[in-house]
Amino acid sequence: MDDVRSCYIDGAWREGGAADVVVTSAADGVDLARFAGAGPADADAAVAAARAAWPTWAATPVTERAAVLRTAADLLEKRADEIARTAALEIGTPIRMAAGIHAQLPAAAMRDVADQAEAFVTEEQVGNSLVLRESAGVAVAITAWNYPLYQFATKVIPAIAAGCTVVAKPSELAPLTTMMLTEALEEAGLPRGVLGLLIGTGPMAGEPLVAHPEVDVVSFTGSTSVGVRIGEVAASGVKRVALELGGKSANVLLDDVDVATALPASISSWLINNSQTCAALTRMVVPRSRLAEVEQALLKDLAARPVGHPLDEDTQVGPLISPAQRERVVSYIESGVLEGARLLAGGAERPPDLPEAGNYVSPTIFTDVTPDMTIAREEIFGPVLCVIPVDSEDEAIQVANDTSYGLSGAVWSADPERALTVARQLRTGQVTVNGGAFNLRAPFGGYKFSGIGREGGRFGLDEYYETKAVQL
């Protein structure tokens, strides 16, 4: 794929003006694509095109904007198999899950955004005032590598639906599927300039976009440290900022839990996308009286989840995205051992019989973890689970909240009302009670160092409107 061009600006693909970007396979290190990355001049050109296109797009009826999004969603789904294979190689997502996570879910989210935009109240009477919701202007969307298309569907698509124009910068580690969505939007009839795409590094493309004086809104998904930097840069221009950052989410098992029901769902929530998920349930808070039972169930379930090449249909846990990410995760495993956590499964050794150049890590479970250990406090972003025993419900709540993050969480109990009572006490942006189903229309975002702002449903649309009061 050496002919790939890294910039989509004003309705045309072109080469970037910065250093080369190389996209490699998580499975075996083979190059998937190489191209000249986007740089500051490309950022200027993309923002200029977006600013020029904004007045006309903002004035376009919402029904026409929604129609483009629905058509693009249909086109995206037609490429589901291609997207799944690309995501499996880029990110390491097992192929059996990749189509759903990286194509079908984003398409469903796009259709929901179209529905929500058509129903969104942009004009209402409040006393003697007419309150108007107007398109915020030019938005920048900077997305992470773990769910490239879904993050587009929760940032770029709501912005477009709200009448904004957008310049998007996906992670240079996994940009190829975002190019497919850009092509789908172009084919669906999105006017030139409404969407720009820049594939490049943060310093060369991301920071110039965030600092650009013609940008009105910045939405970012990624690490907390980078989010803090983006907030600092955007503040100088008094830009509106939404940040979806890290997590260290607690999965609370109460003492009446049905382990046979809770454990399979809990392990799936931990290992989804090879645990390369900000909302992964990586801390399991367990009654000490049931610790041995939970440990046995964990070992039995994990044994039925093979690690393997992401294109193998039997694989349930694939490689991590990069050698650097693998090294990071292994260093945390070594830290857990040194700090005295008991290794129940996995470890720092590579899984056997897999490509040496692949970024494979065995799913690792530590038990007898204490809340002060490094593995219990820092986001690892890989398949490492911390089992933390507690002696009471109050202690479970205290441990769950004893974190600088607040993105997600879960509670399990045989008594749904008891579980809901505990869920209300967790300081986190979303909580799953007894395996409650994912809801596209619910708000997604975090407390504390997990970010500011919300994505999903009408809450995500709200980030891309300004509010005006007209006194009558």
List the helices and strands and how they pair.
Layout: E1 7-9, E2 12-14, E3 20-24, E4 31-36, H1 40-59, H2 62-78, H3 80-91, H4 95-119, E5 123-126, E6 129-135, E7 138-142, H5 148-161, E8 165-169, H6 176-187, E9 195-198, H7 202-211, E10 217-221, H8 224-235, E11 240-244, E12 249-253, H9 259-271, E13 281-287, H10 291-302, H11 323-338, E14 342-345, E15 364-367, H12 374-377, E16 384-390, H13 393-401, E17 409-412, H14 416-424, E18 432-433, E19 451-452, H15 457-462, E20 465-471
Parallel strand pairs: 7-8, 7-10, 8-9, 10-11, 12-13, 12-17, 13-16, 15-16, 17-18
Antiparallel strand pairs: 1-2, 1-9, 3-4, 5-6, 6-20, 11-19, 14-15
How would you characterize this protein structure?
The protein has 472 residues and is α/β, with parallel strands linked by helices. The chain folds into two domains: 7-245 and 449-471, Aldehyde Dehydrogenase, Chain A, domain 1 (3-Layer(aba) Sandwich), CATH 3.40.605.10; 249-441, Aldehyde Dehydrogenase, Chain A, domain 2, CATH 3.40.309. It is 40% helix and 20% strand. The protein contains 15 helices and 20 strands. It has helices at residues 40-59, 62-78, 80-91, 95-119, 148-161, 176-187, 202-211, 224-235, 259-271, 291-302, 323-338, 374-377, 393-401, 416-424, 457-462; strands at residues 7-9, 12-14, 20-24, 31-36, 123-126, 129-135, 138-142, 165-169, 195-198, 217-221, 240-244, 249-253, 281-287, 342-345, 364-367, 384-390, 409-412, 432-433, 451-452, 465-471. The strands form four sheets. The chain has an eight-stranded mixed beta sheet, with helices on both faces. A hairpin with a 2-residue loop joins strand 5 and strand 6. Helix 9 (259-271) packs across helix 10.
